Amino acid sequence: MRVCVIGTGYVGLVTGVCLSHLGHDVICVDNNEEKVKLMQSGQTPIFEPGLSELMHSSMESSRLHFTTDLGKGVSHGEILFIAVGTPPLPTGESDTRYVEAVAKGIGEHLNGGYKVIVNKSTVPIGSGDWVRMIVLDGVAERQQVKVTASSSREEISAAFDVVSNPEFLREGSAVYDTFNPDRIVLGGNSDRAIAMMTELYEPLIQRQAAEDKSLPPVPLVVTDLSSAEMIKYAANAFLATKISFINEVANICDRVGADVTQVARGIGLDSRIGNKFLQAGIGWGGSCFPKDVSALVHTADDYNYEAQLLKSTIEVNRRQRLSAVEKLQQELKILKGKTVGLLGLTFKPNTDDMRDAPALDIIAQLSRLGAKVKAYDPIVAQSGMRHGLSDVIVETDPERLADGCDALVLVTDWKEFADLDFAKMASLMNNPVAIDGRNFLNRDKLESAGFRYIGIGR
Ligand SMILES: NC(=O)c1ccc[n+]([C@@H]2O[C@H](COP(=O)([O-])OP(=O)(O)OC[C@H]3O[C@@H](n4cnc5c(N)ncnc54)[C@H](O)[C@@H]3O)[C@@H](O)[C@H]2O)c1
């Protein structure tokens, strides 16, 4: 099928690349010229395992193109994905201005046959109908007529339908997740649009590119627009709450002398609970959980409902991010004049995304308390990115990081951190203390290398 994906970030680019790999004919549109040039030259602007290889092969077989020309994308696609960012506003609401600009632009270029406009961006509940209205406004603007008569609106609206198709991929395993989804959610009220989306996803549903092809077809959840939009928020709010829950348990474990890793194992084996998202640590972050939980709280507020549980989920997380600093204070007492080394900066491993990473709060708090902060992160060292890192000395390897430190804090559980030369690192430090902010390192290994090991809730 002919597909246009508008917005080539973590979601849009991965969606475009994976759909072209499945045999669809895809044009990706972005208004960032530099990014488009980079992609046209075969390079990916983001780090995501497996993405670059798939992108090359789809480009070589001419099933994947990149452009800044929205008109070209709109006339190409039978299915138009909106995958631009919806970052948080200071109030906690989603900033939907990029979705609005794209919807208007689609309207301005809409012509030819019937199209399905797909909200893949995470958008506030009710956005399906809102996008329809903006597209119609765009059409009216192009025609330079005010579409007020209901008949002319009906005529134009017959040319397209809006579907909500929330995205559940995880950064760091986005390609894998796209080919191996737990479910596909489609929200809308047009049978024709849902049928086209089902056809588009048929190869995924039948697990054509899945790791385990013997699994039954991917479940398809077909529902109304608002329920589809709510499914995305509810999923992220639940996962964030699960992490905040185990972090709260970890804080109690710290005080009573229990080990949260044992507790998590003991409760996670209960099939009603499950073992995922039960790793205690310094909290959740990234581009999705913080903004999506806040946006849901905000929506509830708009409807005169105080989402107390979700507010607590956010508050527990805010405090949890600073628990590593509290542990440093307990250990080193005065932080002024001390040097702290952070192992990892990104909000989780295998991504280069620093949006709302816990590291940023830890750096700000340590700097406020007068500590010197150094950091080593494999992807930051590789890419040289420095966004938001003005208060940190970024080192190029773990040993340079350890040199002269009074303590290390593991912030991101990059796999390679499990096998560092800890004896060498301890010998380079003023004071070999390690705060394991993800309960990821091997305590015995660190202790025999000469470290004092401090985990979260153990
Ligand atoms: N990142 C994730 O893990 C993830 C997972 C699920 C859902 N989501 C949701 O998907 C959406 C996209 O997230 P992302 O992380 O991919 O965003 P992103 O910020 O990485 O990418 C957005 C892209 O849209 C482009 N863009 C902005 N305005 C545009 C316009 N008018 N025309 C063309 N391109 C434009 C930007 O240049 C950028 O390349 C968000 O709503 C997010 O909440 C993200």
TrEMBL record:
Q: Which biological process annotations from GO are given for this protein? A: polysaccharide biosynthetic process; UDP-glucuronate biosynthetic process
Question: What keywords were assigned to this record?
Answer: NAD, Oxidoreductase
Instruction: Tell me the domain of life.
Output: Bacteria
**List of residues binding NAD(+):** 30, 35, 86, 122, 171, 291, 355
Q: In which pathway does it act?
A: Nucleotide-sugar biosynthesis; UDP-alpha-D-glucuronate biosynthesis; UDP-alpha-D-glucuronate from UDP-alpha-D-glucose: step 1/1
List residues binding substrate: 168-171, 232, 277-281, 285, 348
Q: Which SUPFAM superfamilies match?
A: 6-phosphogluconate dehydrogenase C-terminal domain-like, NAD(P)-binding Rossmann-fold domains, UDP-glucose/GDP-mannose dehydrogenase C-terminal domain
Task: Quote the EC number.
Answer: 1.1.1.22
Entry-linked NCBIfam families: NDP-sugDHase (TIGR03026)
Query: Family assignment?
Result: Belongs to the UDP-glucose/GDP-mannose dehydrogenase family.
PANTHER family, A to Z: UDP-GLUCOSE 6-DEHYDROGENASE TUAD
Annotated protein name in UniProt: UDP-glucose 6-dehydrogenase
Q: Which organism is it from?
A: Rubidibacter lacunae KORDI 51-2
Q: What is the lineage of its organism?
A: Bacteria, Bacillati, Cyanobacteriota, Cyanophyceae, Oscillatoriophycideae
